[in-house]
Amino acid sequence: MTSLVPKDKRQLRACLICGIVLNHHTFRDSGCPNCEGLIRMRGSNETVTECTSSTFDGLMAMFNPSESWVAKYSHVNTSKPGMYAAHVSGRIPEDIEDKLAQKGYTYHPRDGSAED
């Protein structure tokens, strides 16, 4: 089983779509464990930079997101277990937001700019 806590504290970033916190290299090498089917971060430093942020507040450990009211409120109740940021500064580029909408995914900005 892989550790839920990133081992390398340097270069931690939070996904702007799901909020999972990993280091830059993990996003680049493996992609986002939740969003890879929506956007392809794997192998693309540019996409990792555009779709993640190093500026985030609060961490939530999600061990069983499907049964957590916090995960439901944070829109990660269908996501993989891991460490998630409570708030992530920044937004995904408009073209990526458009691609998500075309795939039927509702983007919930993690910077607090959208009301639930």
UniProtKB/TrEMBL annotation:
This is Transcription elongation factor SPT4. Keywords: Elongation factor, Nucleus, Protein biosynthesis, Transcription. One of its GO terms (biological process) is regulation of DNA-templated transcription. The gene is SPT4. Pfam families: Spt4. It is found in: Nucleus. InterPro entries: RPABC4/Spt4, Spt4, Spt4/RpoE2_Znf, Spt4_sf. SMART domains: Spt4. The keyword Protein biosynthesis applies. It comes from Coemansia erecta. GO terms for cellular component: DSIF complex. Its main location: nucleus. CDD domains: Spt4. Belongs to the SPT4 family. It comes from the Eukaryota. GO terms for molecular function: RNA polymerase II complex binding; translation elongation factor activity; zinc ion binding. The SPT4-SPT5 complex mediates both activation and inhibition of transcription elongation, and plays a role in pre-mRNA processing. This complex seems to be important for the stability of the RNA polymerase II elongation machinery on the chromatin template but not for the inherent ability of this machinery to translocate down the gene. Residues 12-89 form the Spt4/RpoE2 zinc finger domain.
